[in-house]
């Protein structure tokens, strides 16, 4: 009796304790802090020109960031098993969100594009939530159909078919940048899920003509491509954005002209507080600022990938795929935004996560970080439970 009591006490000496990965939390805080500073610096002249008050965009950014932090806390406290159970239902929500933008009275048309839906006092960009929902659905699918994905073309085609429908709805809005991001994340997750490169290569070869047609069919996309190839050929019209961004980056040199001292943000550089905020960072903080941004994103993405790998090794496959998908999404979106600012990629209209001023993008990026933190929490909890089980089993053997 005393032996059983001792064993019970050894087993229950403490409930497994979960911990959030510090790399994920600290890198996200660093990016959000830098973003707040740079939104304040880059948006004052824009807000003044719109007679909205010098700190209009900063206050708006802080409000959405505060709401995003609240949602991130909710996501970090949500059991992953619940998300996995309702993955298909969430996918239906994603389709509904993309269809709502076309409903009169609900959808909003801005600059000729239908990407937003009315939600009270602000607009919400549906694709920001759809990105995260697709990652959760793909993670669930890869767990349920692991063998099929690895062995057959059909197992690969099913999730790609789902992503293709979502991409088609995005192209109707139109939103080519987000559509490309969804394709890249989908292919990356399926490859990490064990799909053969041969199958992925064949599907990519079949999709290339359709992507090329989508990129060149619209006149404005063709103009963007031409201006990207030679922005100085028409620096005051089609090449204006890129040439102004390159001028800003060149002025920054090694350590920048000083925080708040950017000239290009003063009515020269379009979208200085959103799509081209990196150019302002480069001008005011120089090459050091770009390295700082790259370092913080590398820390965040690297931490997420390491957590995903540990989860896969422990058999928590859904958690691992979620971590991989979120890390891929953040990495690809950051690289595309940075590449656009540096002139190595055509303009895509993607913001720099956690740094660019925004509403729905800030909210859903915070939720993604919260979900990534949840993965790390459940992983550390499982590791702690396994560590506690070892001494208890050794005690059982000794008492026997």
Explain how this protein is built.
This protein is mostly helical. It has one domain. β1 and β2 form a beta hairpin. The two termini are 12 Å apart.
Keywords:
globular; 400 residues; mainly alpha; 3-stranded antiparallel beta sheet
Q: What topology does this entry show?
A:
Elements: H1 2-11, H2 22-49, H3 56-76, H4 80-85, H5 87-100, E1 107-110, E2 113-119, E3 122-125, H6 126-144, H7 146-151, H8 153-172, H9 176-192, H10 197-217, H11 219-229, H12 240-252, H13 277-313, H14 317-342, H15 360-399
Antiparallel strand pairs: 1-2, 2-3
Helix pairs in contact: 1-15, 2-3, 2-13, 3-15, 5-6, 6-9, 6-14, 6-15, 8-9, 8-10, 9-14, 12-13, 13-14, 13-15, 14-15
The largest β sheet comes out as:
3 strands, antiparallel
What number is the mean pLDDT? 86
What is the SS-derived class? mainly alpha
Quick one: overall form?
globular
Spans of 5+ residues with little confidence (pLDDT < 50)?
A: 1-12
- Biggest β-sheet: strands ordered side by side in the sheet: 1-2-3
What is Rg?
A: 23 Å
Put the structure in a nutshell.
The chain is mostly helical. The protein is built from 15 helices and 3 strands.
